Task: structure prediction
Amino acid sequence: MNAVDYTKEPPVVEGRPALADIDEMVARPLDERPTKKFYIALSITLTMLLIGAVSLGYTLFYGIGMWGNNQPVGWGFDIINFVFWVGIGHAGTLISAILFLLRQKWRTGIARFAEAMTIFAVMTAGLFPLIHTGRVWLAGYLFPYPNQHHLWVNFTSPLVWDVFAVSTYLTVSFVFWYVGLIPDFATLRDRTKSTVKKVIYSVCSLGWRHSARHWQHYEKAYMLLAGFATPLVLSVHTIVSFDFAVSIIPGWHTTIFPPYFVAGAIFSGFAMVVKILIFVRKVFDLEDIITINHFEKMNKIILVTGLMVGYAYAMEFFIAWYSGVNAELFVFINRALGPYAWSYWIMVSCNVVFPQLFWFKKIRRSIPAMFVIALLVNVGMWFERFVIIVTSLHRDFLPSSWGMYIPTLTDFGILIGSFGLFFTLLLLFTKTLPVVSISEVKAVVDGSQPSRHGGETHE
Amino acid sequence: MPDNIEYKKKEIPGSVEKIGWILLGLGVILGAVAFLVDSSRAFFTYLITFMFVLSVAVGALFIVALEYLAGADWSVPFRRIPEFFAGAIPFLALLVIPLLFGFHDLFHWTHTEDVEADKILQGKTPYLNEVFFIIRTVFCIGVWYIFYRLFTRNSRKQDETGDQLLTRKNITLSAIFIPVFAVTITIAAVDWLMTLEPHWFSTIFGIYFFSGSMIATLAAITLTAVLLKEKGYLHPKITNEHFYSLGALMFAFVNFWAYIAFSQYMLIWYADLPETTFWFLQRWEGPMMYISIGLIFVHFVIPYFGLVSLPSKTDPKRLKIMSVWLLFAHGLNLYWLIMPTYFSGKEVPVITWMDFTFPLIAIALFIIIFVIHAKKFNLMPVRDPKLRKGLDFHL
Amino acid sequence: MSKILYGYTALFDSPDGIMAAAQKTADDGFTKFDVHTPYPVHGMDKAMKVKPSKLGFVTLFFGLLGGALAMLFMYWTMAVDYPMVIGGKPLFPLPAFGPVTFEVIVLAATLSTVAAMIALFFYLPQNNHPLHDTDYMKNVSSDKYGLCIEAGDPLFDEKKVKTFLDAAGGKNITPIYNPDPVKYPLLQPRFLSVLLVVALSVSGLTYFTLNKLMYMPPFDWMSEQEKLTPQRTYRLFEDGYGMRMPVQGTVARGFMPYPYRDQPVLEEEGLANPLLATEEVLTLGKNKYNTFCSPCHGDHGDGDSRLRGYFPNPPSLHTPRAREWSDGQIYHVLTVGQNVMASYEPYTTREERWAIVHYIRALQRAKNASDADIQLVRSDNNAR
Result:
């Protein structure tokens, strides 16, 4: 009856592979020529990217009048996509930093991939505020550099905080990711037979020698970086939420926004990780390293963060009524029953209702079921941003300024292009860098640690 | 079946219990005097104590659930400490009774004539009425009590049978408890703290109270664990490294509290809407200003630097100081939340002898509950399947 | 052998084996040795007796420095260099500076930690290190655990070390030699030409972008807009003027008609000073008098300014005629001018002119003070 034995920890890596096999398993995609499937996938994502590039080209040439943005809905797909993509990135940092601090060994198998996803998602996200400004080539003025009137950026504006938050986040995520890659580059350097690759790996590995004296500092630095990345990931989506919440727009100005946005970001990010890892482990034969247990744990996190998001929805609704502020109450009733009610109910059902299926162990461990639910979660989270932005704006304070928001083809083109960019980068990543951290996985294989330091006895 | 771990129970001396009863007697007598002297103020100060007991008792139950759910090993040898503290939950039903007589003093929304003159308050009557309020309170305490009984029953049964199924049952129970806890703790925070100022509202408030409660709970657990270890009541295999996670969790929640508190302040300050800013302005009047500024240091800056380094999270001495400090910080936090409502429009001293009488009841209550439980049950879940792993924990 | 010995290496198969060997090496007093493992082995730093990493201090220092500088910089830009009140917030809005300060702390701390780790703690990159490209490195990179005792160690003795490693259970005991030094001269034609190409292309591209590209469509669309520009022709209007006269009868905001404009000098007492001679008004009057009147009439109204002699001499304001004038008459002169004196209506507001009148009155009274006035001033001074 009792399936789990609580006295023993389930192995993180299944099948007890020899250390050299791990090298082989992880490095194989880098050594082999890409398969036909890879090219098909790449051509699909490149097509999407091309659609996006054309739409973006139109936007840059003719201006953002190509979009559906209008008065009073001044923020449209541009900001929705920005918040969506930043949110996707957060799961990566959560897996790599927070789970590291919590000593969750199961993170090792998926951390590298999730971090890469973070970087690509933030890169994609970073495009949107830039194109949203209209004249991208002047984006340098987003940084504190005085213009011709000696005027500085406004440091009390949440949009400037965003510039700092997103650029710091991208930099720190990249550094964190790169630090993790250094030992793996060294391993690849020492096993490759191609001279070109050897030069590249040598440069990237910075002459790493696996020295224990270095490992000591390295682990300390990793710990410190994780310690910084954790509040950083919180701060980034908190600041994104400030973009809305420091205003006095009903539906935006509410104190729960910071933690609610962070929970939502992790929620959507994990959904994306689950979806992509389903393919990665299949295509690259990493079933031993990325096990079904990983998925179950991630699905549990999706369930928990889904409940948090649900809590925030409920609390917002309750306080909108409780506050006695008519404008606030109107916005929430308008969300549920107004012209954009369909988007609201997509959001609620995808984010709160469907993830409840993860209460069942069978569904948590079923690959097709989790794929569908994760997909729905991402759809729901995209619509969450749509609901927040569009429904709050389209009913302005004066009924004479009410309007509707209808996205244009260009809007959709850029949305498709953002997916194209993200997946293209991911595909290229799987073929150029180790998708699993070799040194970290080796460290958690059974028998890899000395017996008196928590490791199982070595035969 | 797990191998049996040698465990010799060491009885806690009766003198500790005696001290508890003396403190309780003293607290009750002084409390009664306080009610006679100034019943209005006494209700407010008593509410602080009540919320303190509530946050530690319910927080302890949450910690138990969280550890089951997260599958943590290090915490297993300590699990009895939060379980014993959660034993204060039944007494909440008793402690809440005096407050029921203070509705008129505590809650402005019970003044019918004022509510009739106030359109906003009128709109809130479906939620803010005495009958529904009492129903909610009874519901919350009842739900907590049921979960407390279920958790501890399974845990204690395991001491005898060592059945792994019980662990599994408790994990399922934890999964159900967490959302229930989120709802009930929010209701408790909104009802007993936010509606003191019936016009004010903040969606983050439930989380704010939760973050503070977690700090107090963890501090109480850490303090007890360190004291028990020093006096040799815990298993000898428990080293200072076991305290690391307690220290780290305290540190994490100190930061989390600061994050939540900053978010709440920042958004209200920045938007500058009169319907919400008045709450912070109340806390900026006269001497309350110093307490507000002090709270930032007491609740965040000092514990942050006290717990940031790795050695400080494993050093029992430092942990002892920091946990006492954080318990005080939580008391101050509750004071900061509750008292300005009483002070508004009054010229009264901010701190009187009364503020120190009621905490005696809380301290005494936890000592007595802990000692009584410790007499009856093992101080360690001796046949928990994860205990071996928990004892072998290394950094 | 011509090569210089770097050290001796041995390989081990298990983490327990390397742990014991490292412990033994450290116990025997070796200091210049190193362990190489494909992943960090727990407890190795204790076995090797290395001191705890001091990297945290770098993080702390640069984190605090970054935060302090960020805060200072924001204060300087927002409150000193270009002070501006935004959203009714103070010039130093601490909570609003929180997010940026935090981000800069994180950025500074992370970058400095990693940079310090790589450059100061590792001395990397050292791609010419003797251990590179050896079988030893290939093994420890993958699945073996290696121990290397360096020749620079004071206790190093080739034979003893060999037997020591053997006794510790090491396999593949091999010596490692320092590689021959390679020189990279700076003044190589190939290097210099690459440098030149890079410099030329970067500066050329920058020139093109800033001076040409930015003036091509669509980049110049913002400066060539279909909008009304002052001092330019505008096709929409028949006469082609961009700037338009206001509609007839347009009245400016705050406009007060002055009905006595066409009279030479105001004789009747039709105008009374609407302002009270408060300190504030007198200060304003003094300020404006000094600005507009004193260049001709002199600082004290004596008509003795440095322009005396260049123009028809400006009259003293202390003549009996001037003192007998009503307030309204002086105001009228200020408003419409008199003789050579031009109208000061365009440069001063109504209130300012009335304040000047007050100030002139004060000057006149001071120049021709009565005993009572002097008494009053004295008693006032004494009271102070």
